[in-house]
Specification:
Length: about 400
């Protein structure tokens, strides 16, 4: 079935309803870590801005608050620790249980721990909040911080629907506060190299994109449960769609999108293949699955040549161009990571700092309009395969 994409009106505020949902799954877009450390020393305080050799004041460090105490938040904190502390400091972490926040704070050397997101929103020493909650909590948490005039970096997907993405984008625009969806892929050196090849015309006109990302994740509760915003598309589908949008669509919607797939017994999408048709006959073929394992490669073909990401298209560290392999190593982690290449989260953190220092309210690399477009494409794909979302409704 083929259906053109459409846009919807900004919906009413749903913050209060969603913030009251079960605490059992609130803390992470992945399963939580089992931390056992003791609470942090409350006397620790953020560092003061440093002085340059010439005596001029350097920009102060960007002070990060962490919303949730789960696996991806752990990896984000580890990634921050690969950056200079004069530029990035994690100063507070919040969880729905104070003890979990204290454990994370102790492990990562964070000064303050809170037992509620509301306390984090009220912290005057937090410049920007990283939201790493489960998908259905992105909307209420993000609105909470935007209304407190905190800049926000939200783990992808921005929301579980285009309606939610539009609501968050509208709130950020109205408040004049920075908001960005965390498609970390766009800030990896390997991705920047790929974009440079495309922009320089090295491939000629880009015509075809192929990509597949699959992991055996059926046992992961948050992925198989509709109430938690589960399914392969919301977890993995955005990576290929953002590639197609950036490399073929250049931020414009496809002329047609077709989705075919299979569902998990719970009703969420399990394996989906997407084909997208863009102006001028450009095409993308993308597959995602939580029921198989693939290397996660992608290939982009143009009229003069092609470039390949051999694995991890979501967090690439190498390219194959003109038969030669180019490698872009990541800094080693100071703590064990939960997911491959997670120190690469440092690059989106650096970009957020650059945007804030320039006074920007959205990223020129990952715009809110493009986040809304990607959410619309995922809505349409989920609708075509009949995937069930929170509340038992088809997307």
């Amino acid at each position: 079935m083929e259906t053109p994409l459409g846009r919807t009106e900004t919906p009413p505020d749903t913050t209060k309803t969603l913030l009251d949902t079960s605490r059992t799954h609130l803390e992470t877009t992945r399963s939580p870590l089992e931390a056992t450390e003791t609470p942090p020393d409350p006397t620790v305080t953020p560092r003061e801005p440093t002085e340059s050799p010439r005596g001029t004041t350097c920009p102060p460090p960007t002070r990060w608050g962490i919303c949730s105490a789960g696996k991806i938040s752990h990896d984000f904190l580890v990634a921050l620790r690969t950056l200079p502390p004069e530029e990035h400091l994690a100063v507070a972490v919040a969880a729905r249980e104070l003890s979990r926040a204290q454990q994370y704070a102790q492990l990562h050397g964070v000064a303050r721990a809170y037992g509620s997101y509301e306390e984090l929103a009220r912290d005057p020493q937090v410049d920007v909040v990283y939201v790493g909650t489960v998908n259905p909590q992105h909307l209420p948490a993000t609105l909470l911080f935007l209304r407190a005039r905190k800049a926000v970096l939200v783990e992808k997907p921005l929301g579980i629907s285009a309606r939610e993405a539009k609501e968050m984008a509208a709130a950020a625009r109205e408040a004049g506060v920075f908001l960005m969806e965390g498609f970390w892929t766009r800030f990896f050196p390997a991705w920047k190299r790929l974009r440079a090849l495309v922009d320089e015309g090295a491939l000629g006109e880009c015509r075809v994109l192929q990509g597949a990302l699959a992991f055996p994740l059926r046992a992961v509760e948050r992925l198989r449960e509709p109430s938690l915003g589960g399914g392969a598309l919301l977890d993995l589908g955005g990576y290929g769609l953002q590639m197609a949008s950036a490399l073929l669509g250049r931020g414009c919607p496809p002329l047609r999108l077709r989705a075919e797939g299979s569902l998990h017994p719970s009703g969420v999408d399990e394996t989906v293949t997407l084909t997208l048709q863009y102006e001028g006959g450009k095409q993308a073929a993308l597959t995602v699955s939580m029921d198989a394992k693939l290397p996660g490669g992608a290939a982009l073909g143009g009229t003069r040549g092609w470039v390949e990401i051999p694995s991890h298209l979501n967090c690439p560290t190498e390219l194959i161009w003109e038969g030669k392999r180019e490698v872009f190593p990541l800094p080693p982690p100071v703590e064990p990571l939960n997911y491959p290449n997670s120190t690469g989260l440092r690059y989106e953190a650096q970009h957020v700092r650059e945007c804030l220092l320039k006074g920007l309210t959205e990223s020129p690399v990952m715009t809110l309009a493009e986040s809304e477009l990607i959410a619309e494409m995922m809505d349409e794909a989920r609708r075509q395969v009949g995937a069930v979302g929170p509340g038992g409704t088809v997307a």
